[in-house]
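Recall that a protein's primary structure is simply its ordered list of amino acids. Everything else, from secondary elements to tertiary packing, is in principle encoded there. The following example makes that idea concrete.
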Amino acid sequence: MAAAGQGAHGTPGTPRVLRAMNDRAALDLLVSQGPLTRTRIGELTGLSKPTASQLLARLEAAGLVRTTGNVTGRPGPNAQLYEVNPVAAHVAALAVDQLGITAAVADITGRVLGEVRVGTDAVDEGAENRTARLVATAVDGALAKAGLGRQQLHGAVIGTPGALDPETGELRYAPHLPGWHSRALKDELAEVLGTPIIIENDVNLAAVAEQYDGAAQDFDDFVLVWVDEGVGAAIVLGGQLLRGATGGAGEIGYMPLPGAPLSRGGDRSAAQPDAGGGFQQLVGSPSVVALAREYGAPGTRTVEEALARDDVRAEVARRLATGLAAVVAVVDPRLVVLSGEVPQAGGEDLRARVEEEFTGLALPRPELRISDIGGNPILIGALRTALAEARDAVFDTG
């Protein structure tokens, strides 16, 4: 007798389960490699020609694949090409910051069809359910550019500073995002959009982008350190993201270090409500600009201007190395990826100085790289996550 709940997908090893596994293997190949012939799919999956033909007929009938022309210029009859049907599913990806929300909508192949940026002033400050309405405005704008409606969305992933506490559902470590701290936030957003929602820490999503498309593609053990307005880290060990009991693993902006004021209890001071404490007050973007002014350039306004000064680069490198040494001593990763406004502005010279400062500070000496992701890494990571979730659901033919 089959175990309870097993009937929906069949017993492992049965023809139904094997068919579903073959279907998923073929679909994943079409996603990663683009259009393929039936013969090539058979070669890559190890399936016979009749089985590959049955598989493609089944997936075409289900609306998951479609034909897209023929291979020409070869002896014999032209072979038909198959590809994943782009309209099989659509997803939304969002990146949230203090100034607004960037939203993108993509089809199941990952092709972005529409992208918009919505400022926080898009919805009046006193409006009811303002946060949910801001998210809806951003998603609707991206959908409109894509020529789609909400009913065509299969899921959404939102990248935001902080992390959802798995016990309470509350967004923690992000006091600078007013309106995002409702314990029912996830449900409120899902109800507004009418689709499943994942809310993920923004730096974790940047690490996902690095794993798929960036500097960490060949690494299962790495730390991504995000140095921008805020400072945080994503820790990946054995290919798995480390989250912590309250979702706060990697909140190194609060890490106490010599020369930095403490941030007790995660509170912000009235004088510097967005500065945080600890490591963030040493290397965050506002602190880098302030450092240049302190060093005799009172007109400095941007991180790029600040890091153009040799003395500022040297001091920022020293501060970064001190904080990274504490992380490396605990985690011992093979790779540290530096991302965010400060590393991007400092470039290779800053990276080399940090590496030099590492001498004597940390016994493990991981490789140190600057992120080479083009575009918004948080948005790219959110899109990758949303696509993985949608494919798991839509490509399941069992």
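The first strand starts at residue 36 and ends at 37. Residues 310-331 form the longest helix (22 residues).
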